[in-house]
Design a protein that fits this description.
Low-confidence stretches: 9-22
Radius of gyration: 18 Å
Number of domains: 1
Largest sheet: none
Order of helices and strands: HHHHHHHH
Number of strands: 0
Length: about 250
Amino acid sequence: MAIRNVALKTKSPDAPSRGGAGGGIELYLKRIFALMFGAVAVTALASYITMATPLWTMLFTQTGLSALYYILLFGGLALAIWAQVRAFSFKPSTGGLMLFLYAILTGIVMTPLLLVAITSNPYTILSAFVIAAVMFACMALFGYKTVKDLSFLGIFLFMGMIGLILVGLASFIWPAIVGGTFGTIVCFIGVLVFALFTAYDMQNLKRAYAVLGDGTQKNQLAVLGALHLYISFIAMFQYLLSLLNRN
């Protein structure tokens, strides 16, 4: 379960960027994707270490998930919210550290889902990752290239994300709620919402670069953008993995 702001917030600049749309924006996007895929790699490593050591046993009790699991889960959500709210108050290096800390926490709390997949069919992990990667690439490219204004999606994506979060919270109390047909529908909606978020954010990142004149702000926005895209990718992967292991 992931949480994020709907809009990429930027400070109002005094003047438009004079770096042009050439090498400047290419470097900016490279920085975003380097941070984002670096965070994905950290998440994979954290999950592997958790599963390969006795750490995974600390996430479970005889009756279900442990208190430690919920502390890490909600602690990670709080960190993600705080990092987004304070994105333009942190140095870019501090923001990057928070991104990777959140990636570590995400990797740990994903362990139960991955263990289910390994027990059921390990190949679904690779399948979900490949499908998520292809969808992410297509939607990111669409968001960057399209001339259609995607801002109208904001309110709908926000509502969809809130609905998914509420269902996720309810499933901790009533696990059966995500079973059967309803659970399958939730997974499809989750994939759709975060796929659209990818395109929405890419368009916002492109537009933000065009108006930000300060290099520090661009670096701060790059970290925030990497966090948003990371959340979308990981959420798509989780929903796809859940969908492939519905049985």
